[in-house]
Amino acid sequence: MSVGISIKHAVKRYGQNTVIPDLSLEIQNGKLFTLLGPSGCGKTTLLRMIAGFNSIEGGTFSFNDRIINDMDPGKRNIGMVFQNYAIFPNMSVRKNVEFGLKHRSLSKEEIKQETDRFLNLVHVDQYADRMPDRLSGGQQQRVALARALVIKPDVLLMDEPLSNLDAKLRVEMRTVIKNIQRDVGITTVYVTHDQEEAMAISDEIAIMKAGVIHHCGKPKDIYQRPADLFVATFIGKSNLLKAKLFVTNGRCRVEFLNGYEAEFSNIRKEEHREREATVSARPEELLVHFGESAQPKDGIRGIVSDSMFLGLNTHYFVDLETGEKVEIIQESRIDSILPPGSPVLLTLNTMKANVFDADSTLSLMDGVENVAGPAASDQAGRN
Length: 383
Description:
- Pfam families: ABC_tran, TOBE_2.
- The protein is an alpha+beta fold.
- Helices cover 23% and strands 34% of the residues.
- It has helices at 43-51, 93-98, 108-121, 137-150, 167-184, 195-201, 219-224, 229-234, 374-382; strands at residues 5-14, 17-27, 32-36, 58-63, 66-67, 78-81, 155-159, 187-192, 204-209, 212-217, 239-248, 251-256, 261-264, 275-281, 286-290, 300-310, 313-320, 325-331, 343-348, 354-357.
- It starts with a strand and ends with a helix.
């Protein structure tokens, strides 16, 4: 039976070093939830606290309404998939998957039936009698997944399960994991530092840094309306431009270093005041105008310094008149690619770009859901 996971005010210390200062999180029953962040941010530590492999110095961990803080790991009914597969090299594929069922009150027929079911589910049934050293990395990871699921755990925990695979296999396996998790419907907590992987498979993502959750939400929401500058720059690519926010008759406009102004109609009303700001624009959110005809304040002028052709799109690297550097993405032109030295004029898609307070680094935009709490705000202010 799948469960929801509730974490309230979790604290983790190693001696005098506090890795997780005060973390609260709700993971819904049946969801694939990803902990995402740079190395050392505490995501694997939190996963191991859920599993019972790490001690808990403060707070409450619950599966549904059952507190698990002091529960033995073996009684938490979790399945675990590790980075290094951790399948037994001296056992066949079938025996690896059967292993967890041997310690349960099941007949031989039931064990075979359940093993066959999950071998089929992860598409390794044809390798049932092979030894692990005759399998590819992707096939070994499928076996590890089958072994974790066959015991019908309440929670599936996955710690960087694809990091040892090559790029093509990672893409293949994340589709496998997403489809199987959806079919089985088990609550899954997935740890990765790979932003694209997290975006591709997750129902929800928590972005972590230094033991603090900066934003928790659906991948689309996090990408389009990040809660702070750390999230904006960690997820995908963002161009950061210095600016100043002005408010006149209830209307907000942002002025860039060269005097170009853009009006934003989607800044929260409680944030309507003059201040220093940072504008974050994805490469696809900067609009490119070619030629010399525009007036100086129509946009920000720049010179193409380099380009990178990637098939459907071409990435341009532009030195702006403000002294800033940006990357822009344009659909590849049939006739030509702009050579270095080409002049361009950039304007902003104000419905998609984001504005942040320069001091706190927090978002000023409407539509920012599940903004990180006070601990994250304090942390953002220190960064």
